Amino acid sequence: MKIVCLDALTLGDIDLSIFNKFGEFKSYDNTSNLDPNLVIERLKDADIVIVNKVLITKEIMQKTNLKLICISATGMNNIDLKAAKELKIEVKNVAGYSTNSVIQQTFASLFTLLNNTIFYSDYVKSGNWAKSEIFTNLDKPIVEIYGKKFGIIGLGEIGQGVARIAKSFGAEVAYYSTSGKNKNDEFKSISLDEMLKSFDIISIHAPLNENTKNLIGENELNKMKNGAVLMNFGRGGIVDEKALTKAVDEKDIKAILDVLEVEPMIKNHPLLNVKNKNNVLITPHVAWGSKTARDLLIKKISLNIENFLKNR
């Protein structure tokens, strides 16, 4: 087998040598979507491709001899699945590898904002605490989760994990199912309208699809309580980022984002120019990427290839 990884940089400092056991393995740090001919050239004679964000279109499939597409992620929107089925090319993704990593990052980000951790850390590092006449500093508010209404949009495996931890902190937890099909006896199901109007913290853990595209726009943001926190650890495109920028400045809405509609972040993005910068925390799509999660991802990709070869 000839195996090609098109965007190894998206996996970070992970050892990919495990794939050598299947045959000839070639890895590229990055492959631009702007040049499909380069993708075709790099996949020349390849049997298996490992890919995260590179588009694998019908044209690319038709001009290569691919037998298996391994997605180094859960989302499959970068692959023309219809064309793959027509051409009898198997497509395998990896689910569940990053659940704990995303849950941990959700609360790490929330605590950073609610506890004003960066402000207090900078206060100490600047030497100002050493100059203080008293033992403490309470210039910025510390907000507890206890007693707050905590809403989850998308109660899948990650959403359930976030819900349980929020509950353990004493929050009142409820969820909104974007498909309308998700039933859970552990937590209360409510409408999106009710959640927006009355909840203090809303955390998104849903995929991007026809039910969630632009789910939170200007109209929805206007319904949110002043000072409420909106978090998106699902997918970019669920929240209207321009409308969110306006809400942060005009309604004192706090925003925590790990995903954006366009990644990497575009230059001069509206959220970079908000007046209330302390009310915004943006991380570069890192929630999925703990070392443990990435090791598990590579292991599961390897198993996908192994199972494919066994069943040929």
TrEMBL record:
It comes from the Bacteria. GO terms for molecular function: NAD binding; oxidoreductase activity, acting on the CH-OH group of donors, NAD or NADP as acceptor. PROSITE patterns: D_2_HYDROXYACID_DH_3. Residues 12-311 form the D-isomer specific 2-hydroxyacid dehydrogenase catalytic domain. The keyword Nucleotidyltransferase does not apply. The keyword Repressor does not apply. Keywords: NAD, Oxidoreductase. Residues 108-287 form the D-isomer specific 2-hydroxyacid dehydrogenase NAD-binding domain. Pfam families: 2-Hacid_dh (PF00389), 2-Hacid_dh_C (PF02826). InterPro entries: D-iso_2-hydroxyacid_DH_PdxB, D-isomer_2_OHA_DH_cat_dom, D-isomer_DH_CS, D-isomer_DH_NAD-bd, NAD(P)-bd_dom_sf. PANTHER family: D-ISOMER SPECIFIC 2-HYDROXYACID DEHYDROGENASE CATALYTIC DOMAIN-CONTAINING PROTEIN-RELATED (PTHR43761:SF1), D-ISOMER SPECIFIC 2-HYDROXYACID DEHYDROGENASE FAMILY PROTEIN (AFU_ORTHOLOGUE AFUA_1G13630) (PTHR43761). Belongs to the D-isomer specific 2-hydroxyacid dehydrogenase family. This is D-isomer specific 2-hydroxyacid dehydrogenase NAD-binding domain-containing protein.
